[in-house]
Amino acid sequence: MEQLLENWKKFLTESSLSRLYDHIMEHESAILTAFRGEYQNKENYERNRELKAKLLANGYGVTKVDGSYVENFETPEALEVSEQSLFVSNRNNDSEFFEVIASLGEEYEQDSVLMIPQEGREAYLVGTSEKNEFPPYGEQLSVGNMKMGDEAEFMSKIRGRPFVFKEELETYEKLSRNSRWAVKQIAKNKTTEG
User: How far is Cα 143 from Cα 136, in angstroms, rounded to an integer?
Assistant: First the structure.
């Protein structure tokens, strides 16, 4: 029985990796978060909920992943942060997708966001904080081609497996009517407050 359970978990993990690969091959993608080390967990989760609502309202596909990033990299204040991140797929082929993602990274005080061109070639970080030196604000830093199952300084993972995330990509169209209304309200309220 225990071996059967382990095989099932492995199957689900590999299926998730395959789905991620499919999304990356078909559309531009990105990974970002609203988490910051100086905020309490409750506030970080609320910030991520707002960010997710804005992404869904833009017509992007979104799924949660576990992210690992070193804030203030190569400084005395360097801190490895594990956080809930969002994998975003440009399902509607928005020509301003990367600009929107960079703008949201800046709005949510991120050091950088990960941009993944279609087919996963030459993924790169974009610096989104004027306060941070790595990567410099507005500059791109190549992190290379996507590699499933490998670990790196910047990665997303679940249960220790890099780029493994939940099975289904959440989209605005798949939300219930009440959920779509809530997404619009959250995104609208945060836009008018800022």
Answer: 15
**Residue-number span of the structural domain to which 14 is assigned:** 2-193
Q: Which amino acid is at 103?
A: S
Cα distance between residue 143 and residue 152, in whole Å: 9
Cβ 140 vs Cβ 126: under 8 Å = yes
Three-class secondary structure assignment of the chain: CHHHHHHHHHHHHHHHHHHHHHHHHHCCEEEECCCCCCCCHHHHHHHHHHHHHHHHHCCCEEEEEEEEEEECCCCCCCEEEEEEEEEEECCCCCCCHHHHHHHHHHHCCCCEEEEECHHHCCEEEEECCCCCCCCCECCEEEEECCCCCCCCCCEEEECCEECCCCCCCECHHHCCHHHHHHHHHHHHHHHHHC
Integer Cα distance of 105 and 112 in angstroms: 7
User: Which amino acid, residue 186?
Assistant: I
- Which token pair is 96? 């301003």
The domain total for the chain is 1
Q: Indicate the pTM of the whole model.
A: 0.70
Please write the tens of the pLDDT for every residue from 115-141.
999 887 778 889 999 988 778 899 998
pLDDT of residue 185: 81
